[in-house]
């Protein structure tokens, strides 16, 4: 499986709201962060619980891969994200595009950074 295939498998799990499959593609120390900024989900378990909370809040949340490119041990994906209505009554989040940079250590993702 190529690194692009692995990143796309992560998105497929994300869209199915299957946090266990999503984090199965990650190292134990993996994190998700804003690009060159704050970590938003720390470690495999932090990612699992953070995504579970996000999916509970936005049960219609989806990400569409618009473009994917592998460069060395990185995968860059341009994604279009739609959240749908929230379960907590918070205002609707307008759909948005994001560039996600997936960093790999071997076959596992060690970090995802979001440029928005």
Offer a quick outline of the entry.
By secondary structure, this protein is of the alpha+beta class. The chain has helices at 3-15, 19-24, 43-57; strands spanning 26-34, 39-42, 62-71, 74-82, 96-105, 108-115. 29% of the residues lie in helices and 43% in strands.
Blueprint (SSEs and pairs):
Elements: H1 3-15, H2 19-24, E1 26-34, E2 39-42, H3 43-57, E3 62-71, E4 74-82, E5 96-105, E6 108-115
Parallel strand pairs: 1-6
Antiparallel strand pairs: 1-2, 3-4, 4-5, 5-6
Explain this structure.
With 116 residues, the protein is of the alpha+beta class. Helices cover 29% and strands 43% of the residues. The protein has a six-stranded mixed sheet with strand order 2-1-6-5-4-3. The chain is globular. The chain starts with a helix and ends with a strand.
């Amino acid at each position: 499986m190529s690194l692009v295939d692995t990143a796309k498998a992560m998105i497929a799990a994300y869209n199915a709201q299957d946090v266990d499959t999503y984090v199965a593609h990650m190292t134990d120390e993996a994190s998700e962060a804003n690009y060159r900024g704050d970590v938003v989900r720390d470690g495999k378990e932090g990612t699992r619980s953070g995504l579970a909370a996000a999916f509970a809040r936005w049960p219609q949340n989806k990400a569409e891969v618009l473009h994917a490119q592998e460069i060395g041990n990185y995968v860059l994906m341009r994604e279009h994200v739609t959240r749908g209505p929230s379960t907590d009554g918070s205002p609707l989040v307008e759909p948005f595009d994001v560039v996600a940079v997936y960093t790999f250590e071997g076959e596992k993702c060690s970090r995802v950074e979001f440029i928005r």
